[in-house]
Description:
single chain, Rossmann fold, 2 domains, 5-stranded parallel β-sheet, about 55% helix, globular
Amino acid sequence: MGLTGGIASGKSTVATILRRLGAAVINADELSREVVQPGQAAWKEIVDAFGPAVLHADKTLDRKTIRKMVFDDPAARKKLESIIHPKVRALAEDRIRELQAAGHPIIVYEVPLLFEGQLQLWLRPVILVACDVATQKRRLRERDGLTDEEAQQHINAQMSLEEKRRLADYVVENNGSLDQLEQRVKAVLEAIKAT
């Protein structure tokens, strides 16, 4: 199944809860770091596309520099995504097959941009973690030290939560306490098992 959510909605917290409830969780961000290690095909393509300025002295990618390069440049962002996303998906499919072969009954693929990458076409069901915009902004300010305006820019850079709600199979609201969140995740997992 797929797990996604808006920025600062709590999807990593939900992934942790799902792990505790027995699910095997694959994290797309971890896979994306794996495919861009020095010497990997994606690493080479990124350096070719964006130049040596995107490298640290140890030849690892300077993610902060790359983020700045692509944040306000849709063409650059699309180029970066066209390099990374197919390799991450291939690695995810390999990991899913490995977990299936090992007999894991519940496999969750946690992907921030699941709908943006059209991954709902092969991942079902999809769980969306959602919260209200005020909560998102507060979490971004606290977590990343962003101003209100910067937080809004990050929220605006993603597909709207309203659109994601329409595309999701299950929505876990995360505006309350951790205990409330855990109860909601358990209820969704039970509903999925029952289908």
